[in-house]
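@channel sequence for tomorrow's demo:
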Amino acid sequence: MEKCNIIYLHTHDCGRYVQPYGYPVSTPNIQILAEGGITFRQAHAASPTCSPSRGALVTGSSPHSCGMTGLAGMGFALKNPEQHMLFTLRDAGFSTTLIGQQHVAEDSNTIGYDEVIPFPEISRRNGGHTFKASVVAPAAAEWLSKKRTEPFFLNIGMDDTHRIWPEPGPEDDPRFVRPPEPIPDNPVTRKDFACYRTSARTLDKGIGLILEALDKNGLSENTLVICTTDHGLGFPRMKSSLYDGGTGVMLIIKGPGGFNGGQVSDALVSQIDIFPTVCELLGIQPPSWLEGRSMMPLMRGEYEEVNEHIFTEINYHGGYDPTRAVRTQRYKYIKHFKTPNFPARTSNQRKGPTLELWIEKGWRERPYPNEELYDLFFDPNEADNLAEKPAFLNILNSMQGRMQRWMEYTSDPLLAGEVPQPQEGTIYDVDSRCIKGTPPLPDCMRLSQEAPNVNLK
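structure tokens (generated this afternoon):
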């Protein structure tokens, strides 16, 4: 097909908590995008932490494969920067521009974009969450108003939905707000979620400005808009966790190639599938390192699924928490590569009223099991761990086998021990703030027998 423009439009810590997914969060412009495109209801990040998720998306490979196993602001970086999607698109004749947040490098000017729109009032370092829609969206709209002779790849990043959130506005009265599952409903959590809802409104206004600029400048029909976020909401058991509340993300795509008409897909997809999808849409030879699968067969109606299973992971964020998960449509298996029954990892949570309440009620003292297995049909909130129940042994073994084979295929460093830290990185912890080094990992991943073939749909 004729080359279309590509816009990667993304925000922070949003999960699926926007209007098109049925949640009481007012985002009318994102709703308009969904009604003109396709909404993926079962889309997941490759990691529920910021830089690893984004690194995986732009390289089409898992965080441990692309090297982004922790935060860009803490010394972690892409192992091979030329695997970033922008280089493949540039070789295909695209101009490449960054406007706003990116979170895969400490300095945006080192990534390789042809153009990085400067924001003099914002530091070049990516640590501060200051790329608000009120600043980024007008700059993007102005950029889109200029005539161009070549197709473009435009990365637009906004971070309104990252904590710290504004006080709730009048439309988000905490008295009449219900927090998301699995957060308990009380005055603290109601106000906390009301603050998120207000932040989502400001994000949505920015997205509306960008969509309006596409229409005004005659770009809508020939531009693929990929609207997503890095991971789940900034609440306990969501962001920085491998439960669906952490890995589930909005993914709304609108543009050429069948991404239109207000469709909804329940196919299981990962953000690492975006890069190969763009390649197939544009007729570009997919790079050899891609681990995702193109979603174009879904668009053509050839298949109902392109993934039998997907994989997600945690390595570093606020602390070291090596964890892996494999998910099918029916089941999820989570493996914690630490001593069994380690305390809840509060160091990987962004401080906020709900987290403080959970800590006050004893969340730090609640243990995690070594392994977790959930039936997502009967237990969508992942509360009933089936890993030690004899009736589910065959399913457990099958899911273990899937994870093992994936780790071997991708040369996961956890198979050999700890995930390496960067040469000059510091791992921060909420409690002591500056912890360097981590305890050694036990060798606990080898399977004693081949896993049986079990129907996991």
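heads up for whoever presents: The longest strand covers residues 263-270.
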